[in-house]
Amino acid sequence: MLTVTADTKDMQKALTRLAYESGKDAVKVGYETMWIWSNSLIRMSPPLKNIHAGGISKQDERIGKDSISKAFSLIFEAVQKKTMLKKLGVEIMNEARVEAHHRSQLTRRGRVRRNPDVRFAQRTVINRVINQNWKHVGRLKAGWLNASTYFAKQIGKNPKAPAWVKRHGTSEGRSRRRVMIERGYNLEGINKVPYVDNSGAVKKAVDITKPRMVRHLEKKTQIVIDNRIKRFNKKKAA
């Protein structure tokens, strides 16, 4: 389980300054920041075509499906008819057995092991299992949907995710605001999808989006300051 919090030093510093310069409530600024950040993490988590640009399009969904199909092609040798399996003298695998073998050949990160144990199976059975696995595409992105939904609600917004991500619901994540007397408050968005701890791609998404969020806050702060200066100069000139 991977946890993302908004109380890092650079983030907290940028949040505090924006709240001070704009006169807005710091908690509300934090809610908005976490909403934007969780939406960014949805975009930047697999599957996606470009790790730097992110994606939630149908093309990104297709990449996820293609990745699953490729994994099955590395683990199974497809044959057309069951009679061929009998001639080969190998096990006639049903859907449950195909899925079990598929899972056994994956690493903790969900990738096909080196030198997988390739088995023969009927093509129609393999295809049915592939279709079942396709239903999980978008689940990793949906791990951030709980955070996006929760923080969006606090500021009257909506989570930003396509149907193929939203279909997984918000149970794969968790979000909350913890109030601590000495430290103020802490906002958390948690992705609970299994194997996310070992997903280098998700960690990379966090590493990319965190500094972007800091720059976003700093840019908003500078706009507030620039607008104040403009209003002052205009009033002075009058």
Word description of this protein:
The strands form two sheets. A three-stranded antiparallel β-sheet has the order 1-5-4, with helices on one face. It has ten helices and five strands; from the N terminus they run E-H-H-H-E-H-H-E-H-H-H-H-E-E-H. It folds into two domains: 2-47 and 141-237, no CATH class; 59-134, no CATH class. The protein has 238 residues and is mainly alpha-helical. A hairpin with a 3-residue loop joins strand 4 (173-180) and strand 5 (184-191). The N and C termini lie far apart (58 Å). Mean pLDDT is 86; it is low at 179-183. Helix 1 (9-22) packs parallel to helix 10, helix 2 (26-44) packs across helix 10 (200-237) and helix 3 (58-75) packs antiparallel against helix 6 (123-134).
Q: How many DSSP helices?
A: 10
The number of strands is: 5
Radius of gyration: 24 Å
SSE pattern: EHHHEHHEHHHHEEH
Proportion of residues in β-strands? 5-15%
- Could you describe the largest sheet, including whether it forms a barrel? 3 strands, antiparallel
Mean pLDDT: 86
Number of domains: 2
